[in-house]
Prior knowledge:
The protein is α/β, with parallel strands linked by helices. The protein contains ten helices and 14 strands. The longest helix has 16 residues, at 278-293.
Amino acid sequence: MSQMVTLTANPxxxxxxxxxxxxxxxxxxxxxxxxxxPGGKGVNVSRAVAAAGADVVSVLPAAADxxxxxxxxxxxxxxxxxxxxxxxxxxxxxxxxDGTTTKLNEPGNALDAETRAALTEALRGHAAGARWVVLSGxxxxxxxxxxxxxxxxxxxxxxxxxxxxxxxxxxxxxxxAGRDAVPDLLKPNTEExxxxxxxxxxEVVADPAAALAAVATLHERGVHSVLLTLGGDGAMLSTAxxxxxxxxxxxxxVRSTVGAGDxxxxxxxxxxxxxxxxxxxxxxxxxxxxxxxxxxxxxxPTPDQVDGSLVRVVPGPPITxxxxxxxxxxxxxxGRDDR
Length: 339
């Protein structure tokens, strides 16, 4: 049995291209050192969890000889794969010297009904006895937008708690599907929370009351815990029983934001597996997201690269935006990453 199981319906090989200066459209750029790593949001969570020594199984659609499978086996990850005809997609990240990232994501392989059924059974089999199941990332073209809602219902009798991190149509469909399809933990960023609330993102970012009102609607729909990532301003944790905490991150030199939100989720779940209180789960989430942002490409931090001692956690909502002079450009440390 595993402590955690992740599903990545749209896995990817993440190719990071380091630019020598700001992106200049139409010109020729001499790239710096580039890298390719196995990715997709659920895969990123699994990599961070496994790096911390916790037991995790990654469920994903990929042929046995796909490069992503080889790469993940090379990292020592346990996999449950369902074969598909096409190769796993490649996503490209252009990284500028100030940490600004531009994402170019391929669409990924379509999942037919037979493949979705096989993924569901693999997920259910490994979820039995697990502590958490994580459904994370985008859905490939042609996949029903309510598939995450269908999966939550299918997983209810396994006893595992369910966390979801997605966006756009799959996120809206999940929250519209009814209380029996609602996850235990939802990890939106400000853009996704605004989508759910039907308000401009700027309103959620600028007005804590608007953010709290939007989060309250998620609790009303049955979500127990909401981990709201706020980019360079840290994160907020709200629970259905009235708990509310905010955390601000330490100053970091941002190298890449790819996977930072996934590492935040991994940090939260690792702390939960260790029996930590809610405020300490939030502290670990922000520490992991910040550590991830300080690393190149889509690298995930190891525990010795994560320091929660400089993360400030307080009861209640965020009050002001925290400025860190050590960071030359306020690039998000966690939250808006690839899908």
